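fyi for ur records
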Amino acid sequence: MGGFCSKQGGCKMMRKIVFHLNCLEQGGAERVVTTLANRFVKEGYQVYIATEWTAENEFAIDERIKRVHVGLTENQEKKSRKIQFFIRIKNLRKFLKQEKPDMVIAFAQKANYRALMATRFTRIPVIVSVRTDPYLHYVNRSDKLLIPLLYPKAAGNVFQTVGAKEFFAEKIQKKSRIILNPINDKYIGVSKPASRRKAVVQSGRLVDFKNQLMLIEAFMLVYEKHPDYVLEIYGGDSYDGTKELLEESIARNKAEDFIRLMGASDSLEKDLADAAVFAFSSDWEGLPNALMEAMALGLPIVATDCPCGGPATLIEDGENGLLVPIKDPEALAVGINRLIEEPQLAEKLGDNARKIAEIANTDAICGQWRDYIEELCRK
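which gave:
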C-alpha cells in the first residue's frame, strides 16, 4: 500500500484511495467527492472513483482520476432486486481486493453499506460519510439492522452536522469527525455590489423537500408590502413533479410577472451576487451547498432552521443571517421583509456571512479530509 504525501516534504509512495458512490450526477455529495478527488490527485494521490452507473449530467473529473464501473452488468440487471444488492457488493469487493487501496471513502447511505460489506475480512479501512438527515432516511427496518452491524466496523465516520452525528451510537460518534462541505472557489472573493437590485433569490434543485412552494406563498405576502420586488428561483428540474406544482402556483397567483423560474445556471456567482435577499426554504437538508455559496457571496440570508441542523451549523441568528421555523410562510415572509426594510442590518449580516469562506474554502476542507485520512491510515 501507499505512503505519505505532504506539501512540505514532497511525495514518496503515494496513498491509493477509492471514493465510492452511486454516480457523479450533479448533486451535493457528488460535488464534494469531485472536489476532493480533483484536489487529491493533484497532490499526488492515486485516486479512483468507483460508481454504480454513469449519469447524463455529471461533474468533470481530472483525467488522472481512474473512474471505475462497479455496478451491474446487463445480465446482472435481469436478476431480482434482492440478488442485485449482493451482486453490487460482490462487484465492489472484487475491485477492492484487486487494487488493495489504503482507504475507501463512501458517500451516502447505500454506498456506505456496500463499502462496509465489501471490505469485511480484507483489512481495507473505510470512512463512511452521512450526507442527509439520518432521522428521516436511516430509520427503515433494514437500517436498524445494518447500522449497528456495520457502522462500528468503519475506520472513521464523517458527518456534516452535530445533529446528524448524535443520531448514531456513542461508539460510532467517538470514531468521527464533523467536516463542512468545500465551497466552490468561484463564490469566494466576489466583489460586493455597489447596490442591490430588488430581487429575492433562491438556488437549488426544484424538488419537494426544498419547499419552493412555501417560498412562493411567503413571497406573495412580501409582494403585498413590496410590489417592486421580484422572486427568482434558480435550479434544474428534479422531475418529481415539483416544477409543475410551482408553475401552477405561479399561474394561480397570477404572478408570472414577478415570480420567475430561472432554470439551472452555471453562473450563479454572477446571477445572485447583487440580490437583496437569499431565501432558503427547505424542510430538511444535510449541509446545503447553495446556502454556503450564498453566504460566501455576502448575501443577506433568511433560512429555515431545518433538521438535521445544517443552517444552524452555518448561521448564528441575527449575526450572519436570520433563522425561521420550517413550513411557516408567514415567518419566512417576516424575515424577508425585515431584510428589505432594514438595509443596514441586511448588509451587516451579509458581510458576516461572507466569513464562511475562511473556514470552508477548498484548501481548508480538503486539508481536514487529508488529515483524517492520514490519521486513520497510520492507525
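The first strand starts at residue 5 and ends at 6. thats all i got for now
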